[in-house]
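Same chain as my last thread, 151 residues:
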Amino acid sequence: MPLVRTLAAIALLALAACRERPEATLDALRLRPVTLPDGRQILVETMIHPMDQARGMMFRDSLAPDRGMLFVHERPGNYTYWMFQVRIPLDIIWMDANKRIVEISANTPPCPGKASECPQYGGKEKSQYVLELAGGMAEKYGLRTGQTLSF
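reply #2:
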């Protein structure tokens, strides 16, 4: 009988170890904190692969005020962004290799129409990182060119 109890206890421990932990979910693994100039932190999805970067915020209906999407380019360049199939206005924030804000497109409107009719934004300054926030959040957080973010 003690052997049966021992085996049952081991089985229960093994099952408990297999349960999904919130911090180990796929979504949690993709999130990283970004510290704003005032010390506040937001969580961002990090887009590194070209396929993820191309999809970005397409087809999403919302973006929480304390969330964002961070695009990491391999090297500095003049990167333009567009809002094709994006459903909500976004603040788009370009940062140089030192994570200093070099350009902001506030409340950038969605472009639900044809891709060929969607305007491009930004790309006037060399950047390596681009942060997308819900429309109006850059102003709410007091973000301005020349400030530096940490991540």
